[in-house]
Every structure is written in structure tokens, then in C-alpha cells.
Write a structure and sequence with these properties.
The protein has 13 helices and 13 strands. It is an alpha/beta fold. The termini are far apart.
Length: about 400
């Protein structure tokens, strides 16, 4: 059996993307024990860096070991007690994921739904909160299945007005689109590294407001092998690994043992956040907006139709309708084989209907956009689609020229 030798790819789908080389270099650093003073100092630095990423002063800002879904599950199992009502705004596949996880937690789940490719208004959400009076409201900011970006600026205030905790999955949107946790009064927000943060999947940053922290700590139970005999309180959180109360004890000054922190993933998560802080969050968002808009212009320049409400599209993922009669998966496979470029299909009602083209993280750059458009044009021609010669690249270049900074 030979050593691993993965092919070189340009990952221009909805995620994962190519990790920034500075992140992978950081991840090759030497392992250190989980309670070594250098390691705990690095954990503290990581917490502080992610406060910048999330736009928060929340003390409880750290990473959950696992993919972005790990933090989603940790959030819902920790802030929702069995039998409590949870309202979920579903506008795509990942809203349905929140629904499933909340059901598994034992919540009474109520959903409101919008057609895929559209978003909710604040009024629609407030009306549903008034009608159902949930303990928790949950939604996705950017749903990669539909490429939509749900407006959140008024949601946290609405939730607080009605005494409801808010949870937001920002896996696909964070630092590619504006997210202001404190300014928008959001209670719990989580994400992953493999999209706009420019890292690999495997670490899930999360931030928790003081009001959410109080709810979690009201259910505090210490693992039996670590307990001093003090009785726990409230309904015990159903997961040991995803118990945010125990994780806060692990990341906090008590350093109460929990799991063994993945040093390699911690290094990667820290470097992802350090790079964002170095660039500036607003500047990172602007970079994604520039290159995402150039990709969108290029796709239209090829004569393709964009999917969904473009006024509410994420900066970093563009949905494009597959030309009628074209075998979309076959073309994607050819693009991968001939050019080493990966784009995505979608799920559910959009499977085989749209391609999803991502422009995010390390790949939110001019050369990656132009190479993808050139490769896509060549494959469209090979599959018999009539496209304007150079139309995609020219339209993208025009966008760059008109929006030069």
C-alpha cells in the first residue's frame, strides 16, 4: 500500500474548499499535551480570535471538536430541554437538518417554510413567534443548498422581545457575509472551518450569549468520574460529548477534564481566525462579495440563468440553472477530469436542476474565478451548448475592472 498522494483539485463547489496553505502549515506543528500551559494559552488565544470572527464579546466563545454539525447538535441539545417548543425557519436543506436534530433532542418542533430560493421577512418570523411562543427560535443564515442568505439584523431583537432564545447556523456564511452577533442580539451562533474561513472540516466554532449560558448552566451536571459529589441541577443535557456546560468548564479557568482536545484541529482553527483578524472581517466580507459577484457575472456571461432571489444570495455561493437537457452530473465529472475543477450539484427538489459554484475562503480570488469560468465554457461547448466565446471570462474581467479597489 502506497503513501497517500491526493490529486490536485481546485474546489469551487459549496464546500469544502482548498484550505489556505498557512492553515495546513499550522496544522503540521508539533503536538502538545492538552493541559500544557502553552496549550491552554493557545486555547485562550483561539477564544479571543473567534470573538473577532463572530463580532462578539461573549466569554463563551470556543471550538467544538467535530465538523460544523457537531456545534449545531451541541447547541440544540444544550439549550433545548425535551418537550420544549422550538420554532425553525426552513428555507432549504439545512433548515430541515435543524428540524431533525431538534426532534432527536426531544423538542416539540414547529416549522415555518419558504420556497427554496427565497428568504423570510422579519414580520413572518415575528408572527410565527407570537403564534407558537417557542422557547427557542432556530434558523440558518446561509443555506448552501439554495445559496440564500437569510437577513438576521432584526431577528435577535424580535426573539428577546418575546423571551425566546435564538440559534443561528452560520456554517456557510460567516466572514463571507456580514454577521454581527452582539449588534444583532443573537444568542448562540456556530459555524465550521471548511467554507469562508478557509480551513478543513473538523472543528466547529461556537459563541454563546450570557442569557444562553445561564440556560445551559441551569442544567449543569459534572461527569461521574470527575464529580466531587455535588448534585447536578435541572434536566441533564442528553449528550456527554456535546454538553456545552461541560465544554465551558473545559475551556474555562477550571480546566475540568472532558475530551482530549485535538491539537492539530485547534492549530488550524486558530490560524483560520488569525488570518481573518489580520485581513479584517469587513475586508474578508468585501473580498467574497467582489469575487462572488465576478463569478455571477461570468456565469451570466456564458448565457446561464442564476437561481433564486439574487437580492438575498450569499456572496460566496452561486446557484446556476443547468441548461435543459444537459446531463449536469456528466459535465461536472468532465470538468473535474479535464481541468481538476470541482463544482457542486444540489439536494432535494434542486438535485439535477442547479449547479452550485462556490467562491470562498482561500479560493475567493481572481485566478480561481477565471479558471473556473474558462473550464466551464470549454465543457459546455463539448456538451453541445452554444455559449459566447470568452463570454464568462470577459464578463468577470469587466466586473473586476468596474469594481477595482
Amino acid at each position: 500500500m502506497d503513501q497517500l498522494n491526493p490529486p490536485t483539485r481546485l474546489l469551487m463547489g459549496p464546500g469544502p474548499i482548498n484550505a489556505d496553505p498557512r492553515v495546513t502549515r499550522a496544522m503540521s506543528s508539533a503536538l502538545v499535551g492538552q493541559f500544557d500551559p502553552w496549550m491552554t494559552a493557545t486555547m485562550n488565544e483561539t477564544m479571543d480570535l473567534y470573538r473577532t470572527v463572530f463580532g462578539t464579546k461573549n466569554w463563551a466563545t470556543f471550538v467544538v471538536d467535530g465538523t460544523s454539525r457537531a456545534a449545531i447538535e451541541a447547541a440544540l441539545v444544550s439549550i433545548v430541554e425535551p418537550g420544549q417548543k422550538v420554532l425553525i425557519a426552513v428555507m432549504g436543506r439545512f433548515g430541515l437538518l435543524l428540524k431533525e436534530i431538534a426532534e432527536r433532542v426531544g423538542a416539540e418542533v414547529v416549522t415555518i417554510e419558504r420556497p427554496w430560493g427565497t428568504v423570510f421577512t422579519d414580520a413572518e418570523i415575528e408572527e410565527a413567534i407570537r403564534a407558537h411562543q417557542p422557547a427557542v427560535f432556530a434558523t440558518v443564515q446561509g443555506d448552501t443548498a439554495t445559496t440564500m442568505n437569510q437577513p438576521l439584523a432584526g431577528i435577535g431583537a424580535i426573539c428577546r422581545k418575546h423571551g425566546v432564545l435564538s440559534y443561528v447556523d452560520a456554517t456557510a456564511s460567516i466572514v463571507g457575509n456580514t454577521l454581527l452577533t452582539d449588534e444583532w442580539d443573537l444568542d448562540v451562533v456556530s459555524c465550521g472551518l471548511q467554507k469562508c474561513l478557509g480551513g478543513p472540516s473538523g472543528s466547529a466554532p461556537i459563541t454563546i450569549s450570557e442569557r444562553a449560558r445561564e440556560v445551559i448552566e441551569a442544567r449543569a451536571h459534572v461527569e461521574a468520574g470527575l464529580s466531587d459529589g455535588t448534585a447536578g441541577q435541572g434536566v441533564r443535557i442528553a449528550s456527554n460529548y456535546f454538553d456545552l456546560g461541560m465544554l465551558m468548564d473545559y475551556w474555562g479557568p477550571t480546566r475540568l477534564n472532558h475530551h482530549t482536545e485535538s491539537a492539530t484541529m485547534l492549530y488550524g482553527a486558530r490560524e483560520c481566525a488569525r488570518l481573518v483578524a489580520e485581513e479584517g472581517v469587513a475586508q474578508a466580507v468585501a473580498r467574497h462579495a467582489l469575487h462572488g459577484a465576478a463569478m455571477a457575472a461570468g456565469l451570466k456571461g456564458l448565457g446561464l440563468e442564476l437561481f433564486g432571489d439574487q437580492a438575498h444570495r450569499m456572496n460566496n455561493v452561486i446557484g446556476v440553472k443547468i441548461p435543459e437537457g444537459l446531463p449536469g452530473d456528466e459535465l461536472r465529472a468532465a470538468l473535474l477530469e479535464d481541468f481538476g475543477i470541482e463544482i457542486g450539484t444540489s439536494f432535494g427538489p434542486l438535485a439535477g436542476v442547479v449547479w452550485r459554484v462556490g467562491v470562498m475562503g482561500y479560493n475567493a480570488r481572481r485566478d480561481a474565478v477565471l479558471a473556473t469560468l474558462a473550464g466551464l465554457e470549454a465543457e459546455l461547448r463539448r456538451f453541445g451548448v452554444r455559449v459566447p466565446a470568452g463570454g464568462g471570462v470577459d464578463a468577470a474581467l469587466d466586473h473586476y475592472r468596474d469594481n477595482a479597489r
